[in-house]
Amino acid sequence: MTKTTKKTHPPDDFFPLRLKTQRLTLREFEETDLADVMAYNNRPEFYRFLPMPEQDETTTKAFIQQCITNQQQTPRRIFQLAIILQDQVIGAVNLRNIDPANKALEIGYSLNPEYWGNGYALEAVQEMLTFGFEKLAARRITATADIENEKSQRTLERLGFVREGKLRDFSNVRGAWKTHFLYAMIQADFEQRTHL
Ligand SMILES: CC(C)(COP(=O)(O)OP(=O)(O)OC[C@H]1O[C@@H](n2cnc3c(N)ncnc32)[C@H](O)[C@@H]1OP(=O)(O)O)[C@@H](O)C(=O)NCCC(=O)NCCS
After folding, report:
1. Domains in the chain: how many in total?
2. Is the pLDDT of residue 12 over 90?
3. Is the pTM of this model over 0.70?
4. Does 128 reside within a domain?
5. Structural domain contains residue 1
């Protein structure tokens, strides 16, 4: 008989990760999130700047399954969390491309367009920055935003990210090459900001 071994995470894998903000919960994705994610991920204004093909039930299930698979990595290389408002998934926020040697991370975020304009991305990203700098001991957290994605640029600038430059032909969005601005927050920026 085959013995099944349940994978256990060391404490510094932060699994399952659950974070709370004033209005939101950030938690691991689950299979039952399918309908909530499908309520927005195929809306053109949602995916306009995102390098992903058109979404349907199959691709959405695959996305959630990939999140669940990634949760099992030890050490974890990506934290992809669902943003929950009143029991509903309204978006996602992630820390990825974890580079332990340089203590560098990238951050990404997206919201159901029905919920734009309420400061929810600010709140979720702020909490992930705190987790990244305080729990993962990040030195530098970067983000990029398409040069036409003004909403995303505003979110990063409001949070105190510094625009460091331009990344030409940085991503290919359904056949079109896109230039992004590179933004970064280093630990010193974060500390200075939280001690204001
Ligand atoms: C990028 C994205 C998350 C920004 O959404 P958003 O709701 O504008 O983000 P924020 O949380 O920063 O909200 C700020 C807005 O809420 C308003 N707001 C309302 N109540 C607020 C509150 N209590 N606190 C803070 N801001 C509040 C602000 O005035 C601001 O409005 P403005 O930009 O019109 O001036 C969203 O456009 C999105 O999901 N886009 C698709 C995916 C994407 O492009 N992701 C980024 C890839 S780089």
Report:
1. 1
2. no
3. yes
4. yes
5. no
What would the pLDDT profile of 92-132 be if each residue is shown by its tens digit? 999 998 899 999 999 999 999 999 999 999 999 999 999 99
- Give the Cβ contact number of residue 45 at 10 Å: 10
Instruction: Enumerate residues lining ligand 1, CB below 6 A.
Output: 46, 49-50, 109-111, 116-122, 145, 149, 151-152, 154-155, 158
**Residue ranges of the alpha helices (H) in 53-119?**
57-71
Mutation to probe ligand 1, out of 155, 167, 178, 183 (largest number of atoms < 8 A from CB)? 155
Within-domain flag for 3: no
Other residues' Cβ atoms within 10 Å of the Cβ of residue 48: 12
| Straight-line distance from the first to the last Cα atom of the chain, in angstroms, rounded to the nearest whole number | 61
Amino acid at residue number 64: I
Domain span at 102: 18-194
pLDDT at 170 over 90: yes
**What's 23's domain CATH number?**
3.40.630.30
Identify the band that residue 2 occupies on the pLDDT scale cut at 50, 70 and 90: very low
Distance 184 CA to ligand 1 centre (A): 18
- Report yes or no on 7 lying in a domain: no
Helix (H/G/I), strand (E/B), else coil: 79: strand
What average pLDDT does this structure show over 42-69? 96
